[in-house]
């Protein structure tokens, strides 16, 4: 959104400095024009101006047709790559593991603050350096084969913010691939409270409902929504204002149009269950 020019420049430079790969970079301006606003970007970086802020997932989707290459990498404007070998290492991983359709790296705070547990997208967090299959992803740094991105349908445009990484991971699994947490790859991102956004509680709840409505077999929809409703009530029972905002989003999730419905196959439900997390929680 053009509000972090210093961080944006650092993230772009970390991409341009990658070794052993050819990079094709586009900076998507979500509601602003990167070509005319703020400090000039490096000459080798193209820009895409979206006159309206379409939200995070839609912005990422709009950037994909603007770049070439068999591997896509999405990087938020406040993240960067500490190692110039990151993309080469990630591409080697994808080449040696054709079953992988999405890779999320381990995320660290560059100032040394403890990383939030939410950055490890699995129930049993364990050692952050341990790699494993996952069923969601932290969206700030994501590596994907283009074929897997296209097969999965990309990011969830209507979500605007929150939980688009869960849907993308689910759809990657449903396309026959696996989503992977790579503890041996590292991206940097500052520790920031996600609740800083006024719409945090509402969109978290709405998009939980939309996840189920868009992606699950009908019989599993109430199971998934019910389990997360119970979790949130227990989590915020002493924060009535947060619960009120959350339930306002919960109601909106049922009333508002969720967009395209692509229920996953029962085969995918079984694969996810065998891999450690059935899509009911």
From TrEMBL:
Pfam families: Glycos_transf_2 (PF00535). GO terms for molecular function: glycosyltransferase activity. This is Glycosyltransferase. InterPro entries: Glyco_trans_2-like, Nucleotide-diphossugar_trans. Belongs to the glycosyltransferase 2 family. The keyword Transferase applies. It comes from the Bacteria. Residues 7-108 form the Glycosyltransferase 2-like domain. The keyword Transferase applies. It comes from Agromyces kandeliae. Pathway: Cell wall biogenesis; cell wall polysaccharide biosynthesis. Keywords: Glycosyltransferase, Transferase.
